[in-house]
Predict the structure.
Amino acid sequence: MSADEDIRHACALLRAGQLVAMPTETVYGLGANARDDAAVARIYALKGRPPGHPLIVHLADVAQLAAWAVEVPDAARRLAMRFWPGPLTLILPRAPGVSDAVTGGQDTVGVRVPSHPVAQRLLRAFGDGIAAPSANRYGRVSPTTAAHVREEFGAQTPFLLEGGDCEVGLESTIVSLVGEPLLVRPGGIPQADLEAITGPLRRAAAGEGPRAPGTTVAHYAPTTALKLVTCDLLASPVPADVAVLARRPAPAGFGGKLWLDAGTDPARYAHDLYASLRRLDRVGAGSILVEAVPEDPAWDAIRDRLARAAAACAAEELA
């Protein structure tokens, strides 16, 4: 099919209550008509996502916001005008008629306007909100290519709109504007850029504020056990069954399964992170060692994802 035919077919599937996998600038999403509770339930079933975890509703533009949010504070409007389309999700009081199936039973809804051209074409053609968490099994590494989506779901892969590699590579920044502004999840937008609009923005503590996607302590995990380590540990000989993700080349004589040098640029590291974890996960290692990243704010989102991935692996070891 042509690109136009693909979009028309995707819209027909969404209107019929089926799922569509779609690219965004952050990660690939598993989309359903956000007005169709049965379709939204199919997302939960395919992902194995626990009930009560809210979804993000993707919109074509800010003009659709009033259909989903009953109250839009001035700070939310200014954030939307500055960062939409783009990798920013706003949590706002939900409008009447927005379903519990999307909000996880909360009185808030997460919304964003993605910038990926394929997502934009789909959303404009569909004409309403598309609920779309990442297109992977719950708690696992998010997909940043169409091949990752197929790898994740195999024969169960829904109709897939291809859009190349995701530009950002990490999930959207989430800001709650219900009461005190809170940074719920770091992402590709620096906190300082957000605070230029909101003023001081406090990072939400665990369990604080509305529930939001990707904020459980354990998340984003490969199937191979992942541990965060210091560069000093990587300087020592590592076991032969270990795979490594570092910010430097492999030392002479490295005898492990695979060493990936992710470099020192945080934007490039973020873009490659999930692809790197998937690659390391495939080599049959007993464990993946990841060099801890800097405390610098530019690494906040990466540090967040790695910490949750390590926590998920630690939890599985204890289970």
